[in-house]
Specification:
single chain; about 200 residues; about 15% strand; elongated
Length: about 200
């Protein structure tokens, strides 16, 4: 590859990384907004909590035209007299998931800045990508765990149990688990590249 093509490729890479940083900043802004909106909606009705969750499959008449027979497994519930621990758990689930994802996005922006500076294979990038992987995993596991605790209290206040839907709730975190694995593989690649780079420098 001649110098002209190399310079062109470098500009393209720099533009891509700058675009990724802008997207990362927008994602952070959206996560902050969405978490605040979710908390506001949770307490939209005085004396009650409002949650959208899975419910046992049941037939309803959908308000479409003259009405249509439908089956739903998702509903927005407005429930009073939910115990304080469950309410706190619902808030923690929202905040914790948002914080984990905001951290991941911020670390991604930092990695992009380091790549623009020409830093690819080093221990810092290895640590940053590993932390991103753990952040995604935590968002999927811890957020869902606290949400499950909160929904247990919501269903108990209604005289029911949140059992059959519990495992389906964890399946909602599958995309985050897959993303955590993908970023984890990137961390392994960066770590291996860093080790090879150190070995090569040692031979010079």
């Amino acid at each position: 590859m001649n110098s002209k093509n190399m310079a062109k490729q470098a500009r393209a890479d720099r533009n891509d990384l700058n675009s990724a940083m802008v997207v990362g900043a927008l994602i952070i802004g959206w996560l902050i907004f969405n978490s605040i909106r979710s908390i506001v909606e949770l307490f939209a009705t005085a004396g009650s909590v409002t949650v959208t969750t899975r419910i046992p499959a049941q037939e309803i008449t959908a308000a479409i035209g003259a009405g249509a027979l439908a089956t739903t497994e998702l509903a927005t519930l407005v429930v009073a007299d939910v115990n304080a621990v469950s309410v706190v758990s619902l808030v923690v689930a929202i905040v914790l998931r948002a914080l984990c994802l905001i951290t991941v996005a911020a670390l991604g922006v930092i990695v992009c800045r380091r790549l623009i500076r020409g830093i690819l294979f080093d221990r810092v990038n290895t640590g940053l990508t590993f932390a991103m992987s753990m952040g995604l995993l935590a968002a999927g596991l811890l957020g869902t765990w606290f949400e499950n605790m909160g929904l247990n209290g919501v269903f108990a206040a209604l005289g029911g149990e949140f059992d059959e839907q519990r495992w389906l709730l964890f399946t909602d975190g599958v995309p985050l688990f897959v993303a955590a694995i993908a970023v984890g593989v990137m961390a392994i690649i960066v770590r291996r590249g860093s080790a090879l780079q150190r070995d090569t420098e040692g031979l010079v």
